[in-house]
Amino acid sequence: MRLWNFSAGPAALPAEVLEQVKDELLDWHGAGCGVMEMSHRGKEFMSIAQQAEADLRELMGIPANYKVLFLQGGATQQFAQVPLNLLNGGKADYIVTGSWSKKALKEAQRVCGESSVRCIANTEDKQAVADGFTRLPAPSGFSVNADAAYLHLCTNETIHGVEVLDEAAFLAGVPAGVPVVGDLSSHILSRPMDVSRYAMIYAGAQKNIGPSGLTLAIVREDLLGKAAAGLPEVMDYQVMAKHDSMLNTPPTFAIYVAGLVFQWLKRIGGVAEMGRINAEKARLLYAAIDGSNGFYRNPVDVACRSQMNVPFTLHDAALDADFLAGAKDAGLLALKGHKSVGGMRASIYNAMPLDGVRALVAYMEDFAKRKA
Ligand code: PMP
Fold first, then answer.
1. Which of 32, 107, 118, 309 is most buried when burial is the number of CB atoms within 10 A of its CB?
2. 298 phi, psi to nearest 5 deg
3. pTM of the model
4. Which of 53, 52, 108, 115 is nearest to 77 (CA)?
């Protein structure tokens, strides 16, 4: 039986998509074999990959001067690949707003040298709360160097639940000409976003796109061709773009499932409709937390509370195990918070329906009543 799955990633996929995968698993559209078993260079798979890219371009409104790359190695590999492709002898600026952007900064410093990678804002505050990150810097609170090779930020911090909800306002002070690179792993496709505000976007697939093993990169063409000397070809965006992401064997099955997810998103009304549903889901859940008289608590500044990842603590951590055991009995999976933060986390990505959030809220209210 399928339960409501609040996993942070790999995360729930739309049931409709999984049904379709099941139907096509042994024989894709009369090909006589499944997608996992066919050549990536055959006409069947080429059509799958082209359709997936076309649907993604349509959904996100990706301008023609951006390449869409289907890569591997996870978003973590991008932490190294971004500076190795874009630094080009210059210096980059990083904004740190949670664990993932902190990791991105550290990896960039490790592979390209500390002096080439500047941290221009860091909202970590271990004094204020145990988990450290609960807010974004004010746009006036950081200043991006006009000579920066790029600015890196993570627009949704999956562990801390801090999201840039208004990219245009947040990035308004970035000097024109500084390319903005965003790690959108955990909220890509969750609502309309202006791709053209970024020079590059990357995202691991396993939250809002499809199975793990696929990493999406959307790169503006003028950023290509600046890779560090000696960079392996599979890590060079320009080489991958030249080969339509097929320099070597791509993660074919993950690309296929991602393509089905894109079609599902189009059927439900695209990112505009998805954004409306996601806003309602987040509203319901935060209302339950804020309306619990302190039984549940989310420490994040209201202006940047994530609509995808909702961490919360119980007023008494001694109740955590009880809460999780009861949740499982109520058909609610994977609510345990990340080990660095503790407490709970409900990830309510695109594939989590409103009904799943309603079930969680009903359980939370019942639990609080019983234990208050
Ligand atoms: N960035 C963000 C925002 C993430 O949520 C994650 C994974 N949870 C990563 C990067 C790392 O992704 P991967 O495991 O695909 O390397």
1. 309
2. -120, 125
3. 0.98
4. 108
Place of tokens 């930020």: 153
Cite the active site residues: 100, 183, 207
My answer on whether omega of the bond before 137 falls inside 30° of 0, hence cis, is no
Residue nearest to atom 3 of ligand 1 (CA): 185
Range of the structural domain that residue 313 is part of? 4-12+269-371
- Kindly tell me if the per-residue pLDDT of 132 is higher than 90: no
Ligand 1 pocket, mutate which of 82, 157, 185 (most atoms under 8 A from CB): 185
28 shares its domain with 42: yes
What are the φ and ψ backbone dihedral angles of 251, each rounded to 5 degrees?
-75, 85
Shared domain check, 237 and 225: yes
The predicted model gives 105-116 an average pLDDT of: 97
Kindly state whether residues 190 and 273 are assigned to the same domain: no
Q: Please name the residue ranges forming H helices in the chain.
A: 15-24, 43-60, 74-86, 99-112, 167-170, 237-242, 252-268, 270-290, 320-329, 354-371
pLDDT tens-digit series, residues 56-83: 999 999 999 999 999 999 999 999 999 9
Tens digits of per-residue pLDDT, 176-223? 999 999 999 999 999 999 999 999 999 999 999 999 999 999 999 999
Closest to 155 in 3D by CA, of 98, 206, 222: 98
Rounded mean pLDDT, 313-340:
96
How many domains are there within the chain? 2
